[in-house]
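#lab-general

N.A. 3:47 PM
ok so I finally got the sequence cleaned up, no stray characters, all 320 residues accounted for. can someone with queue access submit it? mine expired

B.Y. 3:52 PM
send it over

N.A. 3:53 PM
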Amino acid sequence: MNLDRMLEKCRRQQWSVGDLDWSGKPRPMSKDEEMAIVQYFTDMAGIERLAGALFLEQERRTDDPVLKEIFRSFVKDEIRHAHVAQMLADYYDVHHYKMYEMSPSLRRFAPHFVNAIKYLSPEIANAYITGGELMLDIALLRSIDDHVADEMSHRAMQLINRDESRHIAIDYHMVDYYSSPEYLKKLADEPPKPLRQRIAALWAFAGVIYYARPFFHDVFFRPMQMVDPEGKRLREAFKRLQLLSAKPGVASRPFTKFLLAVQALYEQPLLRKTLGPLLERIAGVDGELIQTFYTEEEYRRAQKMSFEALAEEALAAKYA
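B.Y. 4:20 PM
back already:
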């Protein structure tokens, strides 16, 4: 990937909340529909702030000045997205049926995730953000926008989706880097982490594992049951994430091995029956999503593709 061109795109494609026309009126909705949509956008504001926290940490960790500026622009993007999401929640809150707050599972997950990105290896943090952005971009944002079926949402989502496309392109670039010989050599040359820091990392990871499934279920999967009941877009997002394991360098990394092992255990009927709830909690997703979504042909094809080509194909999937 040409990072200079990406940085130029980040600068050129900036926009502000004031670029959107908020003077219209939402289409008529039932009480249940209005309440659900306002809650979706309220939670979306929280999700965007979490993504901003991760990009802030990635900016801090990188030594590349161009990449540092790219991540800095992503932090601005996520702050803007959170602002827009909250304004959309207010825009569709026509009847003020209740006071809306972030889902409790999101509030519980957020501090553990923020703590984890400080102590966990950057490749694990990047794996979570890549998965989250694929679910957000390919599945949730599109499906909510289709369900809202309103011009205000459509205009906002077009701009947000444009930003998210840049984010996913860099997410894939970082997956490439974290599986590269260059990064592995850097890891090998680093001195061992102090015991206290290793304990903090394990504790942070335990917190993420424990709170991830309720968070993903409430904020991603349950809304998708309403706005994409067949689950096609969510499965597509997971397939794109799984296809990254076709790259040998990615498949050999400890966190990828861990996730693949959980999936392999869950796909065994006897183990799924006895250990299913535990494996779902560890994976952080509902059982129906702990399965292989790609074909052998797709896997072999992904092995031969560059990370940039895989990112472009994942982005194209959201328009399919």
